[in-house]
């Protein structure tokens, strides 16, 4: 089979198209014929050698969609449409950057849909992240206000649509005034221009602060995001678009407002159910949720696709088709 192997830690040129043996199905694992997969920023870090315990060579890819080729347990029929995400995929064992992928049963989600594979490929990890952040970490409720820091990201755009569908007031940030209209079109009630500090702008709209913040830029804006919440407000850090893992000079007793709450969402398959994923796919199919896909690359274009993602050129989800 064709697969893209990360031969060693490095720049996108370490991603090499190779011929590999199709993995052999084994008990507790399911062999998937991969159709498409979404690209994720964490795959850049893995490729660069920053993911603990990843040993190269490795077939990366933390998610994929496709059809069951073989399930030795007999639970899933050949041809059943499935998604697979996380659980060590593309890190501890070979992942989705391949024509076939062998994954544990517990990270597989069967679904039915007539959506094109290019669209389906954009869904699993993006939906799992947004749903887990809003529902599990932030426990977002109807009538609350939500500040999305990094609003133009794929995760931010979907978070806005889901929050709006829950009856939440959304404030969305971008550094770029030209993207303001896109955020409004996507459903944001307010757009906040982010020059690094947004606390004053947010307090002009909500003098007592917002209920919840979805922090996608990360450590570089986290202290300021904490200053945007009202009493018992919650900030959830889900992304690190600012590219800084460690936080400098963090003083919890000063930086977290009294009674304020800070949490993170790391993301895992266990936060997703078959019914949640199916329900979301149905919303996309009915047109209630609009996904923005920037480009669909081919498997042999993976080095180019990684470069494109790393250079922040995407204005939507990047998908790769086998
Ligand atoms: N925790 C999890 O389970 C999980 C899962 C998936 C993804 N994530 C994380 O979620 C974040 C969003 O991912 P994504 O794929 O949706 O991103 P994306 O679509 O690639 O985000 C692109 C946007 O990020 C903003 N941006 C880029 N660099 C920035 C910087 N240095 N400072 C501020 N803004 C910057 C830009 O917005 P403007 O130009 O408009 O300002 C750009 O439009 C990433 O950090 C990703 O790793 C987390």
What can be said about this structure in brief?
This protein has 322 residues and is α/β, with parallel strands linked by helices.
Topology of helices and strands:
Elements: E1 2-6, E2 15-19, E3 29-38, H1 42-48, E4 63-70, E5 81-85, E6 100-104, E7 108-110, H2 117-120, H3 124-137, E8 145-149, H4 154-165, E9 169-174, H5 180-185, E10 190-193, H6 199-205, E11 210-215, H7 219-226, E12 229-237, H8 252-255, E13 261-264, H9 274-286, E14 293-298, H10 302-310, E15 317-321
Parallel strand pairs: 8-9, 8-11, 9-10, 11-12, 12-13, 14-15
Antiparallel strand pairs: 1-2, 3-4, 3-6, 3-15, 4-5, 5-7
NADP nicotinamide-adenine-dinucleotide phosphate binds at residues 40-42, 125, 129, 150, 152-155, 174-176, 179, 216-217, 238-243, 265-267, 312, 314.
Number of continuous helical runs: 10
Unreliable stretches, pLDDT < 50, 5 or more residues?
Answer: none
Helix content bin: 25-40%
Let me know the largest β-sheet.
7 strands, mixed
